Structure of FtsX-like permease family protein:
Amino acid sequence: MSANTMMKTSVRNFFAHKGRMALSAVAVLLSVAFVCGTLVFTDTMDTTFDKLFAATSSDVTVSPKEAKNEGSDTGRPESMPASALTRVERADGVKSAEGAVSSMNVTVVNADNKNMGSENGAPTIAGNWTHNDLRSMDITSGHAPRGPTEVMVDSDTAKKHHLKMGDELRTIAATGDFRARIVGIASFKVTNPGAAVVYFDTATAQRELLGRTGQFTQINVAADAGVSDAVLKKNVAASLDGPYKFQTQAEAADANRKDVGSFMDVIKYAMLGFAGIAFLVGIFLIINTFSMLVAQRTREIGLMRAVGSSRKQVNRSVLVEALLLGVFGSVIGVGAGVGLAVGLMKMMSAAGMDLSTDDLTVRWTTPAIGLLLGIVVTVLAAYVPARRAGKVSPMAALRDAGTPADVKAGLVRGLIGLVLTGGGGFALYTATQAAKAGEGSLWLGVGIVTTLVGFVVIGPLLAGGVVRVISAVLLRMFGSVGRMAERNALRNPRRTGATGAALMIGLALVACLSVVGSSMVASATSELDKSVGADFIVEGQNGLKPQAAQALKSAGESGYVSHVTEVKFVRTTLTTPGGVKEDEQLVAATPTYAQDLRRETTAGELSAAYGKDAMSVGSEFAKKNHLKVGDTMKVAFDHGRTVGLRIAAITSDDTTFDKGAMYINLTTAKRYVPADRLPLNGMMFAKAEPGKAGQAYKALKSSVAADPTVHVKNQTDYKQTLKDQVGQMLNMIYGLLALAIVVAVLGVVNTLALSVVERTREIGLMRAIGLSRRQLRRMIRLESVVIAVFGALLGLGLGMGWGATAQKLLALEGLDVLEIPWPTILTVFVGSAFVGLFAALIPAFRAGRMNVLNAIATE
């Protein structure tokens, strides 16, 4: 048979089975759409930030060399004297230079004390209005601030919070609170990703944000005509002596891009990982589809072989159909991916990060990757059925003997599956015996992959036994209809195994993550009960500003509070007696911290660490550096003095909270660190007087009510916060895994639909001998339920095994409670049965509508 004829036959077969191909195409479409949507979404984020950073960066920027990412430990950004601006203005090639003030360690509230920024999203930025801001913003209402009582706000924030001219805003900074009325509104020329921006005049910004006038956080320099940024940078650097950092516009934009790049990479690769899972599930759907289509066209294939088609031509014919399916699904998937990206942008806007469709970026690589992945995966998935089609002998096909059962291949497959499953089980066991989490995680990864592949390979063998058990429990009550559904599910174990495996993958991940998440919450809750003696924990968005800390200490004098503990994290460089240098943060706290956070010691008493010029170290640090109680550690405080502190205690690192922490008395930190360099309180603790917990709780909350970013939590609140944080993360992951589960459901639908076509004559005969339409539909629904529950049992069992192993590794980090979330597991299991019922609706409906005589006449 000529190649042209074979091509026509392939195209004809593809369109002849277009209904059956549709669900497989949807699986390809969804997977490609998720990949392309992820790439378009992250590329759009890149474009948004690139435009923003390019618009806000001057030709050359000068900043303090030690400037940290916001906010500074002290709550005030690093700054430079105004004299630096004078010297920069005199440098060759400088057209203009101006000093700027900017701080992100602020909270801006309206008259109702509502935060104008986001606690979880983009930052709140306060600064002075400069000519450089005109590169990225226009004043669209009012005017720039001219005095201490005037403020200008960005239009996005004004719109979001219904602000108007004349409204009063209160700005909470580390130097204190101050009020100003809105006299201007400025609009971004580029997309604002969600930051709330307020502007003051220069003197007010210096006084209120930096604590003193005559200081700037950076200098923006514009170049004369014909002077390149690189030359300007060199000239400006030559004009200044001291610890300054010089960046061209490109360098500043690149540095800012790197700051947000890690966040965007996490989103990108996580979403691509879930798209890969969807592709993996889709492979089972495609294999099943083509396997069943090949089986249904056995006689046709025999005729093709009888008239001269070679095995290679038959093989190629099936692969051409797969190619058409891949192209069709991938092309639509690329378009759907753009729509998905727009949807993701809307979701991010709701979460606090605004992205505009004006910046929608579709690079040529995105559709190329989507098409390549979709087509390659589809063709590879169809290769096994295509190869099986080529093996059909003409005589066997014409006798309607179908594809010969390869008993030997089945045995080999079963043996390989057992070996892989056993090897994976051994890897998981090895992971549980690891002494370090890093070593165990490698074995865990190997175990997960190997057991997953093993279960997929051994699926047909498991199907026979597991389906019989499920049927004995679920189907016996349905009498003969239930027995027929069982036999249908057992008729082709390979098909049942592949269909169940598609569902198994998604549910295994759901079960694993549920176990890990629940164990983390249970472990943290247990550790909280064991280690935290304080009644209240107080936290702020960027630490606790001095006014909040002072208010809490005042509440401690109300008669309801026994004590209030301050906790600061002080940067130091330690030098051990052996000469080893380590950069470490010391926990500088008031001595009551030893009551608020119970820490066991392996040597010495923790209370002694709060003595004069004393400290504690963690047991792992002490072991690594051969330290003992009585040794003296050389401690160089950041921006402070270098002193020797005596090791008075060694704390056990067998804990979750403050693992590895080193403690000193807050008085010690104040002695060796200048007052204006002391960090803000990272958190604070409080203890209620006996029997007065309720009154203390109200007094503490009332004391910090002026700052909506400060939260007072009792232990119940704190536990709920931990649970909510893990729950939010899991819900997001479950949402992404839903894509794989949807594809798996499509696989069940397709398998049943093609199975109904395959059994058309059989269905007609059953109807002829008295099977009602209702019984027929019930039989197909029960078969679907059995397949879905089979996949659920394998997936949930496998996932709980993975989760239990992962928890053993978490135990090495102090999270030592294993908790199986049975309500979640049972809900997923029952939900799987409903998934089976839902997947069977269309195939059962179509089967019930068959004409009995036409069905019997079908060959």
Summary: Confidence is low (pLDDT under 50) at residues 400-405. Residues 546-706 form one domain.
